[in-house]
Amino acid sequence: MALKLYVGNLNYNTTEDTLRSAFETFGDVVSVKIIQGKGFGFVEYGSSESAEAAKAGMDGKNLDGRPLRVSDARPQEKKSFGDRGGFNRGGFNRGERGGFGKRF
Question: Can you tell me the distance from the alpha carbon of 101 to that of 64, in angstroms, rounded to the nearest whole number?
Answer without folding.
Answer: 55
